[in-house]
Amino acid sequence: MDYFLQLLISGVAVGLVYGFIGMGFAMIFRATGVVNFAQGELMMLVAYIGFTLVGTFKLGFWPLLLASIGVSVLIGLMVEVLLIRPMLGQPVFSTVMVTIGLAVIIRSVVVLIWGADPMPLATGLSTTPIRIGPAGLYPAQIYALGIMACVVGGLWAFFRFSRTGIAMRATANLQTTALLMGINVKRIFALSWALSAGLAAIAGVLVGVIYDLNPGMWLTGLRSFPAVILGGLDSVFGAALGGVLIGVAENLSEGYIGRGMKEIAGFVLILVVLMVRPYGLFGKAEIERV
């Protein structure tokens, strides 16, 4: 029983990182209908920029997190304005290819600037595990739970009560109608990229603090993609829960079945779920009238 609880708790901790990245995927898809395949690479880039900020300004964990979010939001806005906005009116496939090209460029830039050797993201945060029952969690993993609760609560209030949040929901439902109602859709697109980049920054800092930095960090983005499929591509909060479920599934499969299962457990899980609910656990089914 202790072994199961250890796998479960550590799986939830890993799943929180997947959840942040998955929410970023869903944020952009919900507003624009585009899957940003550079989300994991953006997370990696911001984490390495955070490494430079720590070395230059000796930032602690919380100042680094806030600074990384600010930098990431600016990068997200630049990507939307320079690369994505010119693709408006073009086939979705073309825009997706732009994000794939951006992902490849970011991977090369990271290696070119920072090198290929692993590096610690030293923020002064304790690396001594804290015992929670049979499991030991790093302080950063515990902070991730609190940050996730704050982010989910803040986004729920934003979408529910703010005029901008309601405009984003309207744009997600039907862009043409939103335009006719006077909503600035281009501004909504830019905001969705900015929010998605901010979520990537949180994930990047957490991954860097817990696991160190390396050029293979972008794979965390790929492994978190099942989270957004599981929760529903158009459900931001479903992606958060999907990330936790994927993290738990990976840990349990590796713990009870064997090594190598961790890499495929998430994809096996979404195959099973999609056979029952093709639009994910919390996604909305598209109804076409002919």
Automatic annotation (TrEMBL):
It is a multi-pass membrane protein. GO terms for molecular function: transmembrane transporter activity. The keyword Cell inner membrane does not apply. PANTHER family: ABC TRANSPORTER PERMEASE PROTEIN, BRANCHED-CHAIN AMINO ACID TRANSPORT SYSTEM PERMEASE PROTEIN LIVH. CDD domains: TM_PBP1_LivH_like. It holds the Pfam family BPD_transp_2. GO terms for biological process: amino acid transport. Belongs to the binding-protein-dependent transport system permease family. LivHM subfamily. The chain crosses the membrane at residues 6-29, 65-84, 96-116, 136-159, 188-211, 231-252, 264-282. This is Branched-chain amino acid ABC transporter permease. It is found in: Cell membrane. Keywords: Amino-acid transport, Cell membrane, Membrane, Transmembrane, Transmembrane helix, Transport. GO terms for cellular component: plasma membrane. The keyword Kinase does not apply. It comes from the Bacteria. The lineage of its organism: Bacteria, Pseudomonadati, Pseudomonadota, Betaproteobacteria, Burkholderiales.
